[in-house]
Amino acid sequence: MKINNLTPKQFARREIIKYLRDLFDNPAKYIQGFDDLTHKQQEEILRFISLDEHRIDKLLNLPMGES
């Protein structure tokens, strides 16, 4: 079975990566009260999101730039 010329596994990986990018690029969209936090708190949250993004990269075995 192919989805847009991708296997289901490839398609799922791309979708996960798109959501991670959007979370990092638009944290206020997903994190309630993000805009009310101090700049330092926001930076810390984004740092941890970024760390998890890299862990998921390794888990999915797909660099973020390849989607």
Structural account:
The protein has 67 residues and is mainly α. The chain has one domain. It has helices at residues 8-25, 27-30, 39-60. The two termini are 20 Å apart. The model has no long low-confidence stretch (mean pLDDT 81).
Q: Biggest sheet, in brief?
A: none
Number of strands: 0
Percent helix range: 55-70%
The protein's oligomeric status is single chain
Poorly predicted tracts of residues: none
- Our measurement of the CA-to-CA distance between the termini, rounded to an integer number of angstroms, reads 20 Å
Overall average pLDDT: 81
Number of domains: 1
Backbone structural class: mainly alpha
Cα-atom radius of gyration: 14 Å
N-to-C series of helices and strands: HHH
Kindly estimate the percentage of residues that lie in beta strands according to DSSP: under 5%
Note the total helix count. Answer: 3
Shape: elongated
Give me the secondary-structure topology.
Blueprint: H1 8-25, H2 27-30, H3 39-60
Helix pairs in contact: 1-3
Short description:
This protein is mostly helical. It is 66% helix and 0% strand. It has one domain.
Keywords:
elongated, 67 residues, mainly alpha
